[in-house]
Amino acid sequence: MSGVTIRAVRREDGAALIAAHIACQAILHPWVEPFTDMTGFDSWFAQVGQGRKEAFVIERDGVLAGVVNLNEIVRGPFLSCYMGYYGFGLGRGTMTQGVRRVLDAAFGPLGLHRVEANIQPANLRSKALVQRLGFRLEGVSPRYLRIAGDWRDHERWARLADDTVAPHKPAR
Q1: How far apart are CA 105 and CA 52, in angstroms?
Q2: pLDDT tens, 122-157?
């Protein structure tokens, strides 16, 4: 998996992210509703790097593979955030590797103690990803988030900086 990298999103990523969002609507729906035009990108990007949101792109061998957001970063005694992520269907463990690297940044340089991921119960691939990365299920939040006009239940998964995570098994 050495070809998987993360980096902070840049303004120049706008057109490529818009194109990926449009091309992958069948993969992303009904889990997320990302921007599909420059106005949406500008609104999303304006929040990045202001202290409460960090956004990363995942690339595999130089190809855009996904996005990870650390949202509503709270400092002080809480040191927590909500993580959102989605991929563009490259497979081969790309998202697992990318999200793992973002968690390394969250618990390392960003100094966070807790990362929470809220996942719709039917999103089995997303739940499997966080389980591989050592998250634990903490509960269910009814009608937690409005996506595509509907209030959707979410399971609340979390990982702490000092959690012991089982070693990752290499892909075969």
Answers
A1: 15
A2: 999 999 999 999 999 999 999 998 988 899 999 999
Q: How far apart are CA 80 and CA 114, in angstroms?
A: 5
**Where are the domains positioned within the chain?**
4-160
The answer to whether 83 and 70 are in contact (CB under 8 A) is yes
End-to-end CA distance of the chain: 11
* Residue 113 to residues 29, 97, 127, Cα–Cα distance (Å): 31, 20, 21
H/E element holding 152? Answer: strand 150-160
Q: For CA atoms 18, 157, 114, 169, give the dihedral sign.
A: negative
Q: Enter the CATH code of domain 4-160.
A: 3.40.630.30
